[in-house]
Design brief:
Layout lengths: L3 H21 L4 H8 L3 H29 L1 H20 L4 H29 L2 H32 L8 H4 L1 H15 L13 H21 L6 H28 L12 H31 L4 H29 L1 H25 L9 H22 L8 H31 L5 H11 L1 H13 L6 H16 L13
């Protein structure tokens, strides 16, 4: 257990690198479009491709770590993520960048699940609270740093690298992470052998791919019949996936997504809320940065600074939500959803009234309100959603919630792109882009409205408190961390 605090710093840096990569790329999209001649569909894939491949393999990545060793999978993930970042930076076409982003997501899904698993091995129940708090802070910091750092890198254009620098920055970080992880992180595996649900991974991957591909590519291809067939096949494949999960769970208890989780109304509502709020975020920032930079001529740094109040509001909301979450529970989540909706509607009103004279300070207040709402919703959501889930299933339930969030983000980008780029067509004028933004923003507003409705089905504060007490009792009975750590590193 020597050097475990160095190990946790390495793990937190890896989480930061992954979270930064999901936010930093947004402000670089207009520069990518100009330099590579990327199509609107390719711009959508650059954002959604990463989160889609990450989402599909997130649970599998955790299972692979349990079987083959968490340190080993972490090192593989860091290596692949770093090499994929290099491929992104070297891209000579939109297609090459999209494929590289998909590969980045695959290795991110190998790397990130090991972070929580290794922390649980290294630290006892009481110590984990502080480490998880640090992980939450890292998440907030990445949300703030991503757009701002991306804007600085693209605008400063050091060494004539332009947008490529947002991926090159991962290379030295990845190399240092690999070296430090190889030295300081101990190896560990699950005490019991876990079986992989390969068929489940294939089925859910196919389900999501045909849906997202159809939504993103359909508009550019003028919606041929075969695109509608692909989209229509998605619910059929989803039905087969659900049937397979029920069958596998009954036979071996090793389903990728255990159907028993959804026997709880509260957990089902939590999954829907996670999906819906994530669908709102990815799509909103995609259309915002394109409108600001292409429609109004903002520089990348100016666009990043315009989004900064959102991140600051999110940090403030995080501080508020921690003490209020146990008291207000689902009502705080509802307040967060309504605050985001209010922020977006306020933004739309300003954009419509100010028009081409819009400047960044015009959006400070509504952006801060929307960011505040985000963390009022997110911070208490996991505890509330798990309040009716058996403690023994908490790990699987948390992983599935994370997958719902990532899938929601990918689908949100795809749907908002249909509306936004459908209005634009081939007319990239300020007026048309403004109309497209005002049309597209109704997609995240609708998604958040669905999340708000779902909160009424979530467990109440008393149920959350009871579940938390039971969880703490179970954790205190664990004793020392599991003896699954190999000697040395």
């Amino acid at each position: 257990m020597q050097h475990r605090w160095i190990a946790v710093v390495v793990l937190l840096f890896a989480a930061f690198m992954d979270l930064l990569d999901t936010t930093i790329v947004n402000v670089a999209l207009p520069a990518i479009e100009k330099d590579l001649g990327a199509t609107p569909a390719q711009l959508e894939w650059i954002v959604s491709g990463y989160v889609l491949s990450f989402a599909v393999l997130l649970i599998t990545g955790g299972r692979l770590g349990d079987i083959f060793g968490r340190k080993r999978l972490f090192l593989i993930g860091v290596t692949g993520f770093t090499l994929a970042s290099a491929s992104c930076a070297a891209a000579v076409s939109g297609d090459m960048l999209v494929v590289s982003r998909l590969i980045q997501g695959v290795f991110g899904a190998m790397m990130i699940p090991q972070v929580l698993s290794i922390i649980q091995v290294l630290f006892g129940p009481k110590e984990r609270t502080g480490v998880f708090g640090a992980l939450g802070f890292i998440s907030g910091l990445a949300a703030v740093a991503g757009p701002l750092l991306g804007g600085i890198l693209v605008t400063q254009n050091a060494f004539e690298l332009g947008w490529r620098s947002v991926f090159i920055i991962n290379l030295p970080v990845g190399v240092l992470l690999f070296i430090a992880a190889a030295i300081y992180i101990p190896e560990s595996r699950a005490a019991t052998r876990t079986r992989l649900d390969v068929v489940g991974v294939i089925l859910i991957s196919a389900t999501l791919f045909v849906l997202v591909y159809g939504l993103i590519e359909g508009r550019e291809l003028d919606w041929p019949v075969w695109i509608w067939v692909m989209i229509g096949a998605s619910p059929a494949l989803l039905g087969i996936f659900i049937w397979h999960q029920r069958r596998r769970d009954a036979q071996s208890g090793s389903a990728l997504v255990p159907p028993s989780l959804f026997h709880s109304r509260g957990y089902s509502a939590g999954a829907l809320t996670s999906f819906s709020f994530s669908a709102s975020i990815g799509g909103f920032f995609l259309i915002l940065v394109i409108y600001l930079q292409i429609g109004l001529g903002f520089s990348a740094i100016a666009a990043g600074l315009t989004t900064l109040p959102f991140s600051i509001g999110a940090l403030v909301g995080s501080g508020v939500a921690v003490p209020l979450g146990p008291r207000l529970g689902r009502y705080l989540i509802l307040t967060g959803a309504l605050a985001q909706i209010g922020g977006y509607l306020w933004m739309a009103t300003i954009v419509a009234s100010v028009g081409d004279d819009l400047v960044g300070p015009d959006l400070i207040a509504p952006m801060a309100l929307a960011g505040l709402g985000l963390t009022l919703l997110v911070v208490p959501l996991t505890d509330v959603a798990l309040a009716q889930t058996p403690i023994a299933s908490a790990g699987a339930a948390s992983g599935v919630l994370g997958t719902f969030q990532q899938v929601g983000s990918a689908i949100g980008v795809a749907v908002v792109g249909v509306v936004f780029f459908g209005i634009i067509g081939d007319r990239f004028t300020p007026g048309v882009l403004r109309d497209a933004f005002l049309g597209g923003i109704w997609v995240p507003i609708t998604a958040l409205s669905l999340a708000a409705i779902a909160t009424f089905l979530l467990p109440n504060a008393a149920q959350v408190a009871a579940h938390k007490a039971d969880s703490e009792l179970a954790m205190n009975s664990e004793g020392d961390p599991p003896a699954t750590v190999a000697a040395g590193a």
